[in-house]
Structures are given as structure tokens and as C-alpha cells.
Amino acid sequence: MARDTSTVTIWLQKYRNGGLSGLLEIKKAAGAKRKINDDAIAALIQELKTGKGFSSYGGIEEWLKKEHGLDIEYGKVYALLRYRLGAELKVPRPQSYKQDEKLVSE
User: Fold this and answer.
1) Do the beta carbons of residue 44 and residue 38 sit within 8 Å?
2) Burial class (CB in 10 A: 0-12, 13-18, 19+), 80
3) Mean pLDDT throughout 69-98?
């Protein structure tokens, strides 16, 4: 079978304990516990929907620390917003004070 004897022994133990279904069962590791809880994520989503929003990911970091007592790194906050929530910061770009307001409005 081209397998080590310890692997075959583990397979036999699984078969003896759970039968064929125990042998074929695929277990998934639990993984690490999330640093940002569901309540904080729900509050963050509500805060983003208010329209006031945040000017930077650092601002979200500070908000999480102040409101929920969570000390989360910048990269984790960025990954949460961009990849998990699919959100972007809606901040207007700065405009020059030299622009003619009439031309801009047209």
C-alpha cells in the first residue's frame, strides 16, 4: 500500500471504533478564535451605514479600541473590511481651494 505502518494502524483503530463511517469521516480543525467578535462586527457595519463613516482604517482601529475594548492590528482591520465585509472607506478626495466653484458645479 506504500503507507507507513503507523498510518495503517491509525486506519485500523478508526475502523474498529467507528466502522466504515468512522474511517471515512473527514474532520476539520477548529482554527484560531476570531479576535473581533460578532457584536463588534455588527456595530461596525451599522457605523459604516450611517454615512458618517471613517476617514481611515486607523480610525476604525481606534473606534474598535474605544467602543469595544479590542486592540486589533491595522492589517486585520483592513482584511475584515475589504475581504470579509466587502466594504470600502467612502472618503472624498481633497479639492484645491483655488478651484472655481461655478465650474466645478457645472
Assistant:
1) no
2) buried
3) 84
Provide the residue ranges of all domains of the chain, joining segments of one domain with +: 38-84
pLDDT at 75: 92
Q: What is the pLDDT of residue 91?
A: 64
By the 8 A CB rule, do 64 and 70 touch? yes
pTM > 0.70: yes or no: no
Q: What cell does 57 get?
A: 482604517
User: Other C-beta atoms within 10 Å of 49: how many?
Assistant: 10
pLDDT for 21: 92
Q: Counting beta carbons within 10 angstroms of the beta carbon of residue 47, is it exposed (0 to 12), middle (13 to 18) or buried (19 or more)?
A: middle
